[in-house]
Amino acid sequence: MPNGYLAEYTEGAVHAQYRYDAKGNRLFCILTYTQKEMPQDVRRLVRSTYYDYTIGWVKEIHEADVTCYLVHVEDSTAWKDLVVRDGEMTVWHEFNK
Fold first, then answer.
1. What is the pLDDT of residue 38?
2. CA within 20 to 30 Å of 17's CA: 9, 25, 37, 45, which one?
3. Phi first, then psi: what are they for 15, rounded to 5°?
4. Can you tell me the distance from the alpha carbon of 66 to that of 88, in angstroms, rounded to the nearest whole number?
């Protein structure tokens, strides 16, 4: 990639992407997986509020010392992308079907 490198692999149900700068320093990492691979505390937080929604996918993002989760949920009328960080959840995108 221009100005760096991208490494990707899949292990089981987890797809990983690691981005490095031109000197080989890791910039960020994104792990993509399903509800089954979610950390229990994150899953519990999402399901406690969006219990009628289906969790479609999860992206676990690591940058520097920060880890956050982007969680896609949907029901029959809408879908939402949620951000979970430090035990707090916010709606990032929301669309009606």
1. 96
2. 45
3. -105, 130
4. 13
Summarize pLDDT for 23-63 with one digit per residue, the tens: 999 999 999 999 999 999 999 999 999 999 999 999 999 99
CA distances from 78 to 16, 35, 70, 90 (A): 28, 18, 17, 16
The pLDDT score that the predictor gives to residue 61 is 98
Of the candidates 45, 48, 73, 76, the residue with the CA atom closest to the CA atom of residue 59: 73
Contact call for residues 42 and 13 (beta carbons, < 8 A) = no
Q: Which of 68, 61, 60 is nearest to 84 (CA)?
A: 68
**Cβ atoms of 68 and 82 closer than 8 Å:** no
